[in-house]
Amino acid sequence: MTDPIIVVKDLVKRYGSFTAVDHVSFEVERGSIFGFLGPNGAGKSSTIHALCTISGYASGVLTIDGIDVGRDKDGARSRIGVVFQDCTLDPKMTVDENLHMHGCFYGMPKALIRERSRFVLELVDMTDWRKAMAGSLSGGMKRRVEIARSLMHMPQVLFLDEPTTGLDPRTRAEMWAYIDKLRRERGITVFLTTHYMDEAEICNRIAIIDKGKIVALDSPSSLKKRYAADKATIASRDPEALEKLLERHGMSYASAGADGDYLIQVEDQASLMELISEHRTSIGRMEVSRGTLNDVYLEITGKDIRG
Ligand SMILES: Nc1ncnc2c1ncn2[C@@H]1O[C@H](COP(=O)(O)OP(=O)(O)OP(=O)(O)O)[C@@H](O)[C@H]1O
C-alpha cells in the first residue's frame, strides 16, 4: 500500500481468558472508504474501540497517521472523528452548543470554535438549524449534526459505526452524499461498519472479520470475483443435452425447480457464451444474475449480511 493512514499489526484483545480479537492485521489507504464487516460478536467494536483509544488491548501495534495509538492517545485522538450508532448529542442543548462543547473538549480557542462550527454545519447543510434544540431534530438531522461535530477538530479519519441504521432510504442516500463529499473535498479517510450491502459496495476495500480473525480483505469487485460467481438459470427443452454440455465445459450446476431449470455457476463468461451458442435452439428461457457482496459474505461467514 502506498500511503496507509491506519496500520493495525497483530492486534489482540481479550476479555478475561476469551480472545475477542485474535492477531488481526490490516492497513487502510489514506483518502479511501474502508468497510469493516462481520457478524454480531465478530470483534468489530473491540477493534474499533482499540483504534479510537476507547479501550485498551493486550498486544499489537496500531498507528493512525503515523502516531502510535498505544503511546500517544491524545495525538491519535486529534486525528480521528467518531460517530457511533447511539446518538450522543445533548438533547437539551442547541446544535451550536453541542458543537461548542466538543470544541472545548479539544481545547480549541473560542474564535476557532465559532469559525469551525459555521464551516462544518455548512458541510452537512445544517446551518439554518444551529439554534434548534438537538432533541427536536429528526434522526437524519441528528446524524448530520453528529458528523459535523466529529469534524470540528478537522480529523484525518472518520470512524462511522453503522452511520445510517434506522434512517429512511432517502435520508440514507443524503447521508452518503455528505460522506462522499467529505472524502472527495477534504480527503478524509472513512472507516465504516455497516449491515447494508449497498454501503459496503461503495467501499474501496472491505475487511470481513469473523470470530476475531480477518477472513477476507479486498476490493468489493475482487471479493465478488473470488467468492461469488455469477449465476445463470437456463430452462432447457432438452435437459439431457444441456447436462452433457455443462459437463463438457466443466461447469457446476444444479437442477432447480420442476420446470427443467438449471442453476449454473458462471466461473468464466466465455464458457457460458459457448454453451448458450451450442444449446440455443433448446433454450426456453435464460437469466444471468451477478454475484453480490451478500453472496460473498454468506460464503465466507455462513450468515446473511443483514444478520
Ligand atoms: N466487555 C466485555 N466483556 C466480555 N466479553 C466481551 C465484552 N465486550 C465484548 N465481548 C465479547 O467479545 C466478542 C467480540 O465483541 P464485539 O463487540 O467486538 O463484536 P462486534 O463484532 O462489534 O459485534 P456487534 O456487531 O454485535 O456489535 C463477543 O463475543 C462479545 O461477547
Automatic annotation (TrEMBL):
Q: Could you confirm whether the keyword Transferase appears in this record?
A: no
Top-level lineage group:
Bacteria
Pfam families in the record, alphabetically?
ABC_tran
Is Membrane one of the keywords UniProt gives this record?
A: no
Question: What's in the keyword line of the UniProt record?
Answer: ATP-binding, Nucleotide-binding
GO molecular function terms attached to this record: ATP binding; ATP hydrolysis activity
Name the InterPro entries on file.
Answer: AAA+_ATPase (IPR003593), ABC_transporter-like_ATP-bd (IPR003439), ABC_transporter-like_CS (IPR017871), P-loop_NTPase (IPR027417)
List, for all copies, the residue spans of the domain called ABC transporter.
6-236
The molecule here is called: ATP-binding cassette domain-containing protein
**Species this protein is from:** Paenibacillus pinisoli
Organism lineage = Bacteria, Bacillati, Bacillota, Bacilli, Bacillales
